[in-house]
């Protein structure tokens, strides 16, 4: 048995990863993401200021404790969401599939499938990777697939194997002796390729491919060659890297915090300037206010500016983020408990897979549709007909005198 697939780059194995964090990256990545929020960054800077003795007007732990609570609550929520992604990835990667190993088909997990493996799929099986259809139990290696998992379309689409593979690769022994070499392109928007086998070259196109995420329908059995696996499959490349998403509420809160922070700077600057004038006119001349340091009025005003920033830190609502996170968590629970979104026929309730984007639901700005018949008025106008071999039309007088014409 020998089989080779030539690719510029390809990933070993068929395991997929949709989660954001692992044990090592959770803390740094989550903190980095949280400090993109203006309030968290502000309180971190405030904590650094409170460590400086000449500036601090409040103990440093008065800022540290609320900041740790806010970061901890958000981190726990993000961890719960990511653990759900881990479980989903594990479930998918551990699905079973029949792979040709040592001359016979053996059950193997999806994550162990590699480029170049020959797999056998049966009716209602999900396709584990991007596969070149070799043969099927239907005539001419016809295979029907359902793409509902990809685009929601329940109408079946048909795929065809090459005629040469349909004729010569039906039995297990023939598949084990297959020594072809495939050269597919690695473009996302289309698929073309070439298969070299027994000194002949055969063109390949998308009609010969079974894409990951589709489901086998109306086909008892089919065989295919794994062309792309894991992160190289069309569905995974189209999804791209998992991104941290921000909602309109997050953007609005950041804008609000920036505005409050600008107001805070103006108030602190006004108080610091007033303190400088007061010390120049009164404080420096009062012997009972002498603190033993010979600092100028402007320098004292500079230090008092940062002191006022610390004292007035309650103007920036750090609890706002905690409140929003709690609201999102409650909304996700209500979505899961909503009886009107429960599908009794299949015992399937609604499931909020993340608590980050709840407030985006229902905020529809644009509607795009390719079903033009649903958005336009279909009008049928009579032109002509044939009755008894004779043609009649509205603009023909003989039609109006015909006994079948409705009066």
From TrEMBL:
ATP binds at residues 370-372. Its EC number is 7.6.2.1. PROSITE patterns: ATPASE_E1_E2. SUPFAM superfamilies: Calcium ATPase, transduction domain A (SSF81653), Calcium ATPase, transmembrane domain M (SSF81665). Residues 13-64 form the P-type ATPase N-terminal domain. It is found in: Membrane. Residues 93-159 form the P-type ATPase A domain. Coiled coil: none annotated. GO terms for biological process: Golgi organization; phospholipid translocation. Its main location: membrane. The active site is at 370 (4-aspartylphosphate intermediate). Mg(2+) binds at residues 370, 372. It catalyses: ATP + H2O + phospholipidSide 1 = ADP + phosphate + phospholipidSide 2. It is a multi-pass membrane protein. Gene3D superfamilies: Calcium-transporting ATPase, cytoplasmic domain N, Calcium-transporting ATPase, cytoplasmic transduction domain A, HAD superfamily/HAD-like. InterPro entries: ATPase_P-typ_cyto_dom_N, ATPase_P-typ_P_site, ATPase_P-typ_TM_dom_sf, ATPase_P-typ_transduc_dom_A_sf, ATPase_P-type_domA, HAD_sf, P-type_ATPase_IV, P-type_ATPase_N. This is Phospholipid-transporting ATPase. It comes from Takifugu rubripes (Japanese pufferfish).
């Amino acid at each position: 048995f020998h089989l080779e697939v030539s690719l510029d780059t390809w990933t070993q194995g068929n395991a997929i990863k949709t989660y954001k964090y692992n044990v090592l990256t959770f803390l740094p990545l989550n903190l980095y993401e949280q400090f993109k929020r203006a309030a968290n960054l502000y309180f971190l800077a405030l904590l650094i200021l409170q460590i400086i003795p000449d500036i601090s007007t409040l103990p440093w732990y008065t800022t540290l404790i609320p900041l740790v609570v806010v970061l901890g609550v958000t981190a726990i929520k993000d961890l719960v969401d990511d653990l759900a992604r881990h479980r989903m990835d594990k479930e998918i990667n551990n699905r079973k599939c029949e792979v040709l190993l040592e001359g016979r088909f053996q059950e193997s997990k999806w994550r162990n499938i590699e480029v170049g493996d020959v797999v056998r799929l049966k009716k209602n099986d999900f396709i584990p990777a991007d596969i070149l259809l070799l043969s099927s139990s239907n005539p001419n290696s016809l295979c029907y697939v359902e793409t509902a998992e990809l685009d929601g379309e329940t109408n079946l689409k048909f795929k065809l194997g090459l005629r040469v593979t349909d004729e010569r690769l039906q039995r297990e022994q023939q598949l084990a002796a297959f020594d072809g070499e495939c050269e597919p392109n690695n473009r996302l928007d289309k698929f073309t390729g070439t298969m070299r086998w027994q000194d002949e070259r055969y063109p390949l196109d998308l009609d010969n491919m079974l894409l990951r995420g589709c489901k086998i329908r109306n086909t008892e059995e089919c065989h295919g060659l794994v062309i792309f696996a894991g992160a190289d499959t069309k569905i995974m490349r189209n999804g791209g890297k998992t991104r941290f998403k921000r909602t309109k509420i997050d953007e609005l809160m950041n804008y609000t915090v920036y505005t409050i922070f600008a107001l805070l700077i103006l108030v602190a600057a006004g108080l610091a300037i007033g303190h400088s004038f007061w010390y120049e006119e009164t404080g420096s001349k009062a012997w009972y206010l002498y603190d033993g340091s010979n600092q100028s009025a402007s320098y004292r005003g500079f230090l008092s500016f940062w002191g006022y920033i610390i004292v007035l830190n309650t103007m920036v609502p750090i609890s706002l983020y905690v409140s929003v996170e709690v609201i999102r968590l409650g909304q996700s629970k209500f979505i899961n408990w909503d009886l009107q979104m429960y599908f009794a026929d299949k015992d399937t309730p609604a499931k909020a897979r993340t608590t980050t984007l709840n407030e985006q639901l229902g905020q529809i700005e644009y509607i795009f549709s390719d079903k033009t018949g649903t958005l336009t008025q279909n009008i049928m106008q009579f032109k002509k007909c044939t009755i008894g071999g004779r043609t009649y039309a509205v603009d023909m007088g003989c039609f109006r005198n015909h006994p079948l014409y409705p009066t």
